[in-house]
Amino acid sequence: MKAILHADKEWGIGKSNGLMFSIPADMKFFRETTTGNVVVMGSNTLKSFPGGNPLKNRINIVLYPDGEKRDDCKIVGSLDELFAEIKKYDPDKVFVIGGAMMYKTLLPYCSEVLVTKVNAVGGADAYFENLDNNGNFKLVYESEPQETNGYEIKFTTYKNLSLKSL
Questions:
Q1: Of 75, 98, 156, 159, which one's alpha carbon is 20 to 30 angstroms from that of 112?
Q2: Cα gap 11→162, rounded to integer Å
Q3: In the chain, which residue ranges form alpha helices assigned H by DSSP?
Q4: Beta-sheet pairing, 112-118 with 151-160
Q5: Side-chain half-sphere of 45: how many Cα atoms within 13 Å?
């Protein structure tokens, strides 16, 4: 399993249950990376999508205690159910996409974290753990900086050096 996100200079990842930045290159990377795969999220992330609808062309697994079962995504009510559902898929095709609590809970089980770093401060109210200060993670890839939509971004990959199994 992997995590995918964008983060500002302070490792902020969201504001008012939404993204802080609208960066087409980042959205394209997210779309190309997750399409045809499995995305795992919490209920607030699902609610943040247009119309509260899951992402198209992906299997959407949502941890949503007391959430109603739906035909357009897989609703699970507990972490045990979530882990059981995730185990049904190839771990290289499973991506945690938010929110902050899902990232925090599932980070030890993620083999890699794909972070689009935005060289700005977005006024976040939700944060991701600073992987540069976490000895369990190693930066294994960093793209050259690129300017897009008025922001400088870098695509990075962190490897989990002490991966926990589900």
A1: 75
A2: 21
A3: 24-34, 43-48, 79-86, 100-106
A4: antiparallel
A5: 25
